[in-house]
Amino acid sequence: MWFSIGFGKNMNQTDMIVWHANGKDSEVIDYFSKGKYTPQPDEEQNLEAWHNLIEASEEDLDDYPKVNFLIYRDLDTGDAEKDFLIELDTEL
Q1: pLDDT tens profile 34-53
Q2: Which of 22, 41, 59, 86 has its CA 20 to 30 A from that of 14?
């Protein structure tokens, strides 16, 4: 399962955060999209992320394991070229 957020109006020059739920191999990756191509991981991974599998009985899994994510990112990472500046008191 994949989930992502892009900080832009299109795929050109857009900062992205991608969550990939894949059991114990789950991950969160900082991407940068340069256009209408597959985005590439940002050289500077400015994220602190953790994940864990939710313990549940076999009947509760519904064919997919459940994963919790916790992620931290500075509002201003200092990477003005590839990270979106999130300003306080500004609507996104």
Answers
A1: 988 889 999 999 999 988 87
A2: 22
> Measured between alpha carbons, how far is residue 24 from residues 45, 52, 62 in Å?
20, 7, 17
pLDDT digits (tens, 9 = 90+) for 2-28: 999 999 888 899 999 999 988 888 999
At residue 59, what are phi and psi to the nearest 5 degrees?
Answer: -65, -25
Domain positions in the chain are: 2-72
With a threshold of 0.90, does the pTM exceed it? no
